[in-house]
Amino acid sequence: MASCNSTLLIPLFFFFFAFAASESLIDQSDSNPTDCADRWIHIRRLPSTFNLDLLSNCSGYPLFGDLCPFLPNHGLGHKTHNRSQSWYRTDSLMMELIFHRRMLEYPCLTSDPRQADAVYLPYYAGIDAMRYLYGPEVNSSADQGLQLYEFLQEDLPEVWNRNSGHDHFMVLARPAWDFSQPLDSDPPTWGTSLLELPHFFNVTALTVEARAWPLQEHAVPYPTSFHPPNLSLLESWMQRARRSKRTSLMMFAGGGGSPTSSPNIRRSIRSECENSTSNVTHNVHGNGFYGGAGGYSKLCDIVDCSNGICEHNPIRFMKPMLQASFCLQPPGDTPTRRSMFDSILAGCIPVFFEELSARAQYGWHLPEDQYPEFSVYIPKEDVVFKDTRILDVLRNIPRARVRRMREKVLGLIPRIMYRKHGSSIGLRAKKDAFDIAIEGVLQKVRSRVHRGQVFVQ
Q: Which pTM was predicted?
């Protein structure tokens, strides 16, 4: 534990330094109000018990694992190798820290909450939830968020009361389901009750996976391992993905799907991949992407990511994704997967089997009406129960359409990545996942507050 705490000193010191320096950033933004019209954000100063102090216990949950290695570089984690400039061993649970660090660079910060169009709560809810999910307070899981609400009511209550919390937002680095335990669960079920507390019904919650009905939730992309610091490195990677030779028709990176399990989409995918052959077959219509001179050396590739072995090692799955035309994205414990965003980074066309996997989730970053242009949808019921073969569906997609879809996927890369903090001016001109999320929050707040549409759920 001592070594873990010592490794925390450097990243925490610089984070505190950046937080203190944010006052100067705020002063600079105040001098340029024209560009910041309707974009002012106030960072609510919370006691460190709600954020930075939580990081000091990063190794305190043996049932989950040690989070300490993923704190360096303000939550990006260690570089994948010493010479890497863009690739890190990022854990998705660090999204709250990544957002907090990027908020300190936001150009339209204001120290005056009365001037703010939105108020950011830097509460590390996903990390705080660990003590309820894996720690000693599992029987108090309905209490998460109560202390935060008490603080907001006691410290400058006028900031909260001005719009009853409608102009506040926070980031949750776990799926919304993990914060959706009913308040009256006895005994407690999985999760905490943060999003079930009436106190926070008006607060916009940015989460890696949202539920379909609560209006305060909105999904934002999982952090991947790619965080370029400048435009040149982004463009270089996009060119590599564009020129990569696609030797596999489709690939799946993930776990599950044991032959002994009950029928499910992952089992069907594994079975189809294992039964496929590398023999080149021709499309009877002559317009498919598979067969003839355009044939692949492999129909299906599987990267076994059981027990989380791929989570912090992008080298394990990115090369196979770069070599595949289509990346299969079946649901798991929840509908969405971080792998979807990894596949987009690789220029690998995602194949979905459930509407909630993405189309009903990431509307700000991946417009719903554009999904047919960059993805394939095959209902999982057709694959599991109606003998639809994924290979047949994909082989019958015309080659020209596959090229257009891949180019569309490549164009989405800037929108779903989180660039590195302190990035170059040229890269900052391209909106990344953080920029788009903040734009979405501000628009959401305006629709509920500035237009007189304040309501209570």
A: 0.90
